[in-house]
Amino acid sequence: MNDIASELGVSSSNVALAWILRKGFIIPIIGARKVEQLQDNLVCVRTELSDVHLKRLDDNSSIQLGFPHDFIASNAVQKIVYGAFKEKIII
């Protein structure tokens, strides 16, 4: 994050907030206590992250979910839970 912030000439918090905004389904919560912090954080709406930046951030922050996620997401468990109707379920 710091490397990308240096490349773009913005703070790390700008990169973090811009990245969260680009996710599309998450709204960042700005925890500024001073006007200067708020002003700095609001720069995130003008911070342009390239696809390369987004990939670097995603790759460097990814984690393995492990058990129980991997077990539940396995094909064998999915077949037991949904059977042959996985794509046909209508709610």
Task: Give an overview in words.
With about 90 residues, this protein is an all-alpha fold. Helix content is about 55%, strand content about 0%. The chain is built from six helices and no strands. The chain has helices at about 1-10, 10-25, 35-40, 50-60, 70-75, 75-80. Helix 1 packs across helix 2 (about 10-25). It starts with a helix and ends in a 9-residue tail after the last helix. The model has no long low-confidence stretch (mean pLDDT about 85).
Order of helices and strands: HHHHHH
Tell me the total number of β-strands: 0
Q: Which class do the helix and strand fractions yield?
A: mainly alpha
Give the radius of gyration. 19 Å
Low-confidence stretches: none
Give the integer mean of the pLDDT values.
87
Basic shape:
elongated
Number of helices: 6
Helix content: 40-55%
**Largest sheet: number of strands, sense, barrel closure:** none
**Separation, N- and C-terminal Cα atoms:** 41 Å
Beta strand %: under 5%
